[in-house]
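User: Sequence in, structure out. Go.
Assistant: Echoing your sequence, followed by the structure tokens.
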Amino acid sequence: MVETEEFIAEAKAEIREAIGDANAVIALSGGVDSSVAATLAYEAVGDQLTPVYVDTGLMRKGETEEIRDTFDFMESLRVIEAQERFFDRLDGVTDPEEKRHVIGEGFIDEFETVARDVDADYLVQGTIYPDRIESEGNIKSHHNVGGLPEVVDFEGIVEPVRDLYKDEVREVARALGLEAIISERMPFPGPGLAVRIVGEVTPEKAAVAREATHVVEEELAEYDPWQAFAAVLGKATGVKGDNRVHGWVVAVRSVESRDGMTARAQELDWSTLQRIQSRITGENENVARVVYDVTHKPPATIEYE
């Protein structure tokens, strides 16, 4: 990457040239990639931009409220409550790639609705270089790359950070003056908790994954992982009190990485793992057991689907 300040100036110029006098919407998720793209675009074209945050029901705990507070300086910010629509779309869908495409189409539908309302011709996205590589290499589809429907009702898509790796995006975030809660935030997948749920996505599974991920993020903060989260794998038998239960199996994953292209599972203290499993099973009566994923990337991906 060129020097950070030079990149920022060039990115803003590119955005202004691409959008011209037209209006644009940007997919703002609250992750560092989309936050940087949104800030660059907002500083480049101002009121021509409408940032759109879509609450799919697959977000991290407290994320929607956090977005409202962090980006309240963007007066045109729109928060779309779309949980019911996304769960309806995902009903009965179990194939990982189909999930990503369904979610990608759902996002585009929401953006197109807002775009028509504000007469926007362009969609801005926070796609970064590893997203493109993984989609082009058929490792997995990203909802903002390979997950797009064949026909998108925009004149163009603008991706100002498309050639950057994650650590470079963080450098830009710091240079833009974004809060540490954004610039240092762990990666979060575009399809959200859906790719941390093996099989069909339901509101119950999403709630389990959200609460368990919150526990993992809290407990592993001192380890400074590249990414740490919990995934819902399926069901298994367990014992709670004097009763036999058939509850969810939650996998804990914590990895170290530079750019997400490769990753190593972190070595965690046994006492830390025991504390995590105790909290997850204790705080959710529907969880029967917790396991720790020791697989590196490759052969595994970081996320589960």
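User: And one key feature?
Assistant: The CA atoms of residues 121 and 148 lie 17 Å apart.
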